[in-house]
Amino acid sequence: MVEIIDDFLVETALGFYCRYGDFYIDPKQPVQKAVISHAHGDHAVPGNRNVYCTAATAAFMQYRFTRHTQSSYFIKGFDESFDLNGVAVTFIPAGHILGSAQVLMVFKGVRYLYTGDYKLQEDATCEPIAYVKADVLITETTFADPAVMHPDPIEEIKKLKAVSTHIMLGCYALGKSQRLTHLLNTYCPEKTVLLHHSMLPLHRIYDDLGFVKLNYEPYQRKSLKEGRDKVYLVPPMTFNHYIRAKNVVRVFASGWKRLQRQNDLSLYISDHIDWADLLTYIGQVEPTEIWTVHGEGAHLREFYSDRMKVRNILKG
After folding, report:
1. Dist. CA 149–CA 216, nearest whole Å
2. pLDDT band, very low/low/confident/very high, at 118 (cuts 50, 70, 90)
3. Which domains does the chain have, with CATH numbers?
């Protein structure tokens, strides 16, 4: 019988800290040793001295943090184990965005699995999620609610086929915009995908490191003043700035209902798990305990109340 260490990973002001290996996972402020699950801004910050991550995550961070103090990157492949002060760490594909990883940590025979952000839905632009067994599952709970069910992204994107007017499509620049580009290329091939300038460098990294060809054009000032069937992908700030844009259909791709309000058409495409996929994932991992982060774990605690220990991660 393995002995689980209750404070193996704790949440601190700096991020999730493993004092047994003396490293942080997805720190919120610069630290000496940072294990980064993926390159979204709420998981990857500049200024860490030593960064352990996948190749794609390093590429995104190095592009975004060029004006900051140079970090030392230790790039690790998926399924490649490395040692941090006696803790064996392995990156497992998370299926969230290109290069995203679950972090498997093995210490004194106990397997602790930190999910980071992850999804089970098919996404040709990134590595598909992989499943490993763990004694402790440390999972995000962004949409851990039985009332949340993400629709089929293919059926969602096909809703745009019926719109011949130009579309302003709000989405996050890293991960979501590349996924949407591929979905549009594949299921709405008559649409021309136009990119906001901030998305172009990230698409080019996907072109270099990704798995599928992305067809897109840079947005020009006259792009939406002529023709038809154009979809202009813009980041959230631009989308919100042009709230009164004329002659375009406004759409925002997200799993959050609040981000669908006041738009001309809803588009529920999320890069996080919903309730059903969370239960499927837990069934694959077969943990003894579940520790929750990034959301509300009350529904999970109630669901597993007579079968498994479920709690929030401890505060350090």
Report:
1. 30
2. very high
3. 10-146+272-312 (3.60.15.10), 153-267 (3.40.50.10890)
pLDDT in tens, 41-62: 999 999 999 999 999 999 999 9
Whether pTM > 0.90 for this model: the answer is yes
Give per-residue pLDDT as tens, 205-234. Answer: 999 999 999 999 999 988 888 888 999 999
